[in-house]
Amino acid sequence: MKCVKVPLKQLNDTRITLMEKGLMSMDFRIKTDGEFGYIPITEDVSGYEIADVELEPMKKVAHSFSELLEDELTSDEIENLKTSFDTIGDIVILEIPDELYSKRQIIGEAAYKFTKRKAVYMKKSAIKGTIRIRDLEFLAGTDDSITIHKEHGARLKLDVREVYFSPRLATERKRVMESVRDGEKILDMFCGIGPFPIVIARNKNVKITAVDINESAIRYLKENIGLNKLAGSIKPYCGDVREVSKSFNCKFDRIIMNLPGLAYTFLDVAVDLIEDSGIINYYEFSNSYEQGIKRLESACEKSEKKIEIINCRKVKSTSPDEWHVAIDGKVSKKN
Predict the structure, then answer these.
(1) pLDDT cut 70: percent of the chain above it
(2) Could you tell me the pLDDT band of residue 44, with boundaries at 50, 70 and 90?
(3) Distance (Å, rounded) from C-alpha 324 to C-alpha 112?
């Protein structure tokens, strides 16, 4: 490799000069030997002693997941690959198009190398069933689907094969937490492993009732209550909230309804359980807010209550024409 040979005391100044002129090769390491240094160059340079020296190549650091795949996939395939992925604790979950399924191992290894996480899985199905889980296929790393995810100071233990959890709702959970007042009685109707209850209870002096039909989710919720030292703040229940709620002997100041595919079918339960002037944090999949607002208004009308819409926002995109939307409403008795 052609190099500029300079005394060591001139090495740094020469390096800077060559870099500024675009003459220094960034593909090889500078070498020092005795009293001299050797700076790799991209073309002949006048005014310096030139030497031909064997240099160590620079290790190429990939700046993106896609860059690691450049030698394995065509540009069209990379473009077609959804390179965004979910990182849950030390686990990566990829979404790979059907047409790239045959190359899933190559893609998985690239994700493993780029993220340096424990395990890489790919989604094999959509979220399904009342317990809200999806099929996953192991691709790279160590096939261990249990992890601890950290969010806003909370530790959330889960098995990604057994429960549903979205790290993309972290901002939404923080937003709801910040809107909670100390002293509130809260019901999370579809709590999963407890991200809403855990994040809220870590930051506010509240009492939370947390319900989910998935036994594994409730098992992990109980572990997470212990991990975060929140015993006494959160009371878990396993079962269908429509049935479980029949044993409740109180109303709630806030009800969280984050089951966007089916939450609307439980609005009658929520409206019945909400305290006067209480808040419902309602979620659904939709291309607008109008449908959700109408559903909230209709449910309140049937119970001779009214609702004031406080806030509407798009939480995340689920498809080009559909969003996971959030609608906050204050429910009160009609005058």
Answers:
(1) 98
(2) confident
(3) 29
The 10 Å Cβ neighbour count of residue 61 is 6
Same domain? 268 vs 309: yes
* Terminal alpha carbon distance of the chain: 86
Q: Specify the pTM.
A: 0.80
Q: Indicate whether 60 belongs to any domain.
A: no
Q: pLDDT (tens digit, 9 = 90+) per residue, 53-107?
A: 999 988 766 667 778 888 888 888 877 776 678 999 999 999 998 888 999 999 9
Burial class for 193, CB neighbours closer than 10 Å (0-12, 13-18, 19+): buried
The answer to whether position 251 is within a domain reads yes
Burial class of 146 by CB neighbour count within 10 A (0 to 12, 13 to 18, 19+)? middle
User: What is the chain's Cα-based Rg?
Assistant: 28
Q: How many residues does the chain have?
A: 335
> Which domain covers residue 262, as residue numbers?
164-333
**Amino acid letter, residue 128:** K
At residue 69, the pLDDT reads: 86
Helix, strand, or coil (residue 38): strand
DSSP H or E run through 268: helix 267-273
- Alpha carbon 157 to its chain centroid, in Å, reads 14
Task: Tell me how far apart the alpha carbons of residues 91 and 104 are, in angstroms, rounded to a whole number.
Answer: 16
